């Protein structure tokens, strides 16, 4: 079964990532009507296969994930199909789920086996009430009038059940949803920033930006690079960890200069852009850094499909710097005056029209789950659904490996 799928973050009231849910499209929405019927009546479990293959480390950084299930899936032995930690898996049930005694019995069993359960907003709450004892989460379409009623109805008896508000796309709707009683929130509010006229970039960020600009020159000196990195202990350790973990076993890297020469300019440039962007983004919501990394690799992977394979390195850079305004807490225009990027990348990130902009718009549509438009662009560019999925999934797995190396690799000292 051909899938388009993207994990979307769910936040706590403190704006920390609590979980992810899978937004998806089965097949090409324009050619095959989305094949929703195929998913609802198929004994296959593509989302469990996806989670099993990709792993929760790459998908959610080992946070909870909501996986869509159907009436057919509820009749299967999901405990044998699911290879992930069950305590980190919530079975997500939409309006098509039958509120029957048989399904209630099956859901009760799955909860006893360690799974969490969740229902997407539906109007027949009276009928759903018998399922409340077995429900951990309820998704609501950010109806701030309905949330207090739902909360009062559930919380009196089932205090552990949490209400998730969907479509929270700015700070105003975030605050309204919290006041109305939502405990968890989903939406793009974390991508929005308030730009102050007097906003100044901290000296630490200025140093990192200088390093970015240095390696983004056509040619740069390895000794100068090593000299800059060694002045920041955290950055130096991170660099040595990465080189040590990627190099041939048995070869001891003895210094930053040695490591730089072993890696070479091209790989140094990629490492600096990812590592420094990650470090700069530490003050932003954690999802921002994750988003920039996945966008970068997804852009690179899409290059051949847009007949831009020769530009894959700059497409990587475009994806990585697409959230630079959030990281630097300024406008994108000012951010791109501070950090040097190729002109075509700059045009795309500023909303202009060129071949880079086409790729940038595509990845935005993909992560927003705008599947009809994604399908239209796929048709125009003769892109296969399977190839798009593989490009995105590879980006997720690459990000998983990246954070795993950062967490476990042993550093080498100067």
Care to describe what's here?
With 414 residues, this protein is α/β, with parallel strands linked by helices. The protein folds into 2 domains: 3-191, Alpha-Beta Barrel (TIM Barrel), CATH 3.20.20; 203-408, Orthogonal Bundle (Hypothetical protein af1432), CATH 1.10.3210. 53% of the residues lie in helices and 11% in strands. Strands 1-2-3-4-5-6-7-8 form an 8-stranded mixed barrel, surrounded by 6 helices. Strand 7, helix 10 and strand 8 (184-186) form a beta-alpha-beta unit. Helix 12 (222-229) packs across helix 14 (256-263), helix 13 packs across helix 14 (256-263) and helix 21 (355-368) packs antiparallel against helix 22. The longest helix is centred in the C-terminal third of the chain and has 24 residues, at 385-408.
What does this entry show, briefly?
With 414 residues, the chain is of the alpha/beta class. The chain is 53% helix and 11% strand. It folds into 2 domains: 189 residues, TIM Barrel (Alpha-Beta Barrel), CATH 3.20.20.450; 206 residues, Hypothetical protein af1432 (Orthogonal Bundle), CATH 1.10.3210.
Q: Secondary-structure map with pairings?
A:
Blueprint: E1 3-12, E2 17-26, H1 29-32, H2 36-40, H3 46-54, H4 56-60, E3 64-69, H5 71-74, H6 78-81, E4 89-93, H7 101-112, E5 116-120, H8 125-128, E6 137-140, H9 146-155, E7 162-165, H10 171-180, E8 184-186, H11 203-215, H12 222-229, H13 233-246, H14 256-263, H15 265-280, H16 286-302, H17 312-321, H18 324-328, H19 332-338, H20 343-349, H21 355-368, H22 371-380, H23 385-408
Parallel strand pairs: 2-3, 3-4, 4-5, 5-6, 6-7, 7-8
Antiparallel strand pairs: 1-2, 1-8
Helix pairs in contact: 11-15, 12-14, 13-14, 15-17, 16-17, 16-23, 17-20, 20-21, 21-22
């Amino acid at each position: 079964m051909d899938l388009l799928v993207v994990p979307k973050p769910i936040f706590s009231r403190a704006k920390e990532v609590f979980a992810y849910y899978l937004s998806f499209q089965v097949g090409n929405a324009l050619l095959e009507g989305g094949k929703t019927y195929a998913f609802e009546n198929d004994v296959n479990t593509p989302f469990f296969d996806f989670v099993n293959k990709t792993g929760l480390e790459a998908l959610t950084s080992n946070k909870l994930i909501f996986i869509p299930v159907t009436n057919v899936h509820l009749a299967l032995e999901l405990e044998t199909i699911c290879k992930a930690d069950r305590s980190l898996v919530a079975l997500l049930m939409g309006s098509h789920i039958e509120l029957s005694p048989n399904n209630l019995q099956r859901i009760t069993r799955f909860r006893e086996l360690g799974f969490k359960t969740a229902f997407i907003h539906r109007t027949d709450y009276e009928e759903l009430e018998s399922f409340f004892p077995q429900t951990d989460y309820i998704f609501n379409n950010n109806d701030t009038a309905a949330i207090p009623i739902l909360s009062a109805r559930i919380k009196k008896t089932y205090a552990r059940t949490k209400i998730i508000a969907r479509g929270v796309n700015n700070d105003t709707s975030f605050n309204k949803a919290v006041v109305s009683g939502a405990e968890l929130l989903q939406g793009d509010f974390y991508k929005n920033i308030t730009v102050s006229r007097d906003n100044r970039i901290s000296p630490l960020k200025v140093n990192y930006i200088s390093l970015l600009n240095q390696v983004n020159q056509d040619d740069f000196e390895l000794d100068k690079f090593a000299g800059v990195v060694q002045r920041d202990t955290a950055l130096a350790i991170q660099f040595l960890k990465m080189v040590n973990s990627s190099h041939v076993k048995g070869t001891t890297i003895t210094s930053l200069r040695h490591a730089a020469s072993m890696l070479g300019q091209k790989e140094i440039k990629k490492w600096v852009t990812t590592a420094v962007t990650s470090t700069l983004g530490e003050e932003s919501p954690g999802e921002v850094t994750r988003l920039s990394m996945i966008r970068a690799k997804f852009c690179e992977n899409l290059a051949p499909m847009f007949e831009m394979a020769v530009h894959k390195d700059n497409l990587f850079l475009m994806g990585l710097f697409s959230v630079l305004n959030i990281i630097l807490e300024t406008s994108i225009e000012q951010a791109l005056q501070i950090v040097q990027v190729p002109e075509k990348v700059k045009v795309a990130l500023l909303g202009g029209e060129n071949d880079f902009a086409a790729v940038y718009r595509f990845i935005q549509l993909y992560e927003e789950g705008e599947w009809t438009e994604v399908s239209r662009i796929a048709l125009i560019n003769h892109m296969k659904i399977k190839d798009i999925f593989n490009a995105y999934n590879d980006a997720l797995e690459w990000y998983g490996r990246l954070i795993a190396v950062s967490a476990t690799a042993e550093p080498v000292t100067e």
